[in-house]
Write a structure and sequence with these properties.
Length: 291
């Protein structure tokens, strides 16, 4: 079964994780911007090639989960990561407020319907983790979920964490490589990006008053992220807390981790049987002499 690529940003598997100790910016020893861009391009090219082999190999799928506060860079990172991948080999889903149909099912249903087939990369821009993040910060959202029983909130979150761990273990046992990225943007950097959206007309559409309202719950979200990541980071479904104040460093780091995960799978093109090879030679002769 797949195990997590090593990284200084890997969330430990023992429950010891503190948001406050995590960097939001690259360290002093981080590569320069030009080197970051070059390394990103190399990884993107490699990922595109390995996805093609994964499709032929037909035993694995890859699920990339992105969670973050608003303006942390999810969309741009996903776009940069998949630039070179065959569009038929990847699927991107963004999960927002659930519909009435989705609310009539369990909280894993709507994302379960969107899991990638073997050979494909699936990307969740937000995910089932919203149920232990935004719903935890706003427990009034539970009123619309028509739960048959409503335990106390701490018990409810514990049950949902358990369900998520079981779900991801089931996926891993069935060949799905699960990689989860928390884009750790600082509150000050988010403020700067919000101001940029307001000041540049071509970015105005990105801003909503809801973004500013949710910013007011920053500390509650950080507590929710801390517990969610601590309780659900596992070797077969790791979380990575990636510094997100620098978009170029963020994109390079995510790409290198995805590339390392691909490399760990020992993917191979299927071996063609000897009798089929013999037939290929005959077919080739016919095609070469065809008039």
């Amino acid at each position: 079964m797949f195990t997590a690529p090593p990284s200084p940003f890997l969330v430990p598997f023992d429950g010891r994780f503190e948001v406050g100790s995590q960097p939001t910016a690259p360290g002093a020893d981080a590569p320069g911007k030009d080197d970051r861009k070059k390394r990103l391009e190399q990884c993107v090219e490699r990922i595109a090639a390995l996805q093609h082999v994964m499709y032929a190999h037909d035993k694995h799928a890859m699920l990339l989960v992105f969670q973050a506060m608003d303006a942390a860079g999810k969309d741009g990172t996903i776009r940069a990561l998949l630039t070179g991948v065959n569009p038929a080999g990847c699927q991107v889903f963004a999960f927002k407020q659930p519909s009435s149909l989705e609310l009539d099912h369990d909280f894993l249903w709507r994302t379960g319907m969107c899991l990638p087939e073997r050979g494909r990369i699936g990307v969740f821009n937000r995910s089932y983790y919203e149920e232990v993040l935004v719903v935890r910060v706003h427990p009034e959202f539970l009123d619309a979920q028509n739960l048959p029983e409503r335990p106390d909130l701490e018990t409810l979150w514990a049950h949902r964490m358990e369900s998520i761990r079981d779900h991801e273990l089931h996926l891993a046992r069935n060949g799905v490589v699960v990689l989860k990225f928390w884009l750790n943007v600082s509150r000050d950097e988010q403020r700067k990006r919000f101001l940029s959206r307001l000041e540049e007309p071509e970015k105005n559409w990105k801003f909503s008053q809801g973004d500013l309202r949710e910013r007011g719950f920053w500390d509650a979200y950080m507590r929710a992220y801390e517990q969610a990541l601590a309780e659900t980071s596992r070797p077969w479904a790791p979380w990575y807390a990636i510094p997100a104040d620098s978009k170029s460093f963020l994109r390079m780091t995510v790409a290198e981790l995805v590339c390392a995960a691909f490399e760990s799978l020992d993917l191979k093109y299927p071996t063609v049987r000897a009798e089929d090879v013999a037939r290929f030679a005959e077919i080739r002769r016919k095609l070469e002499t065809e008039k």
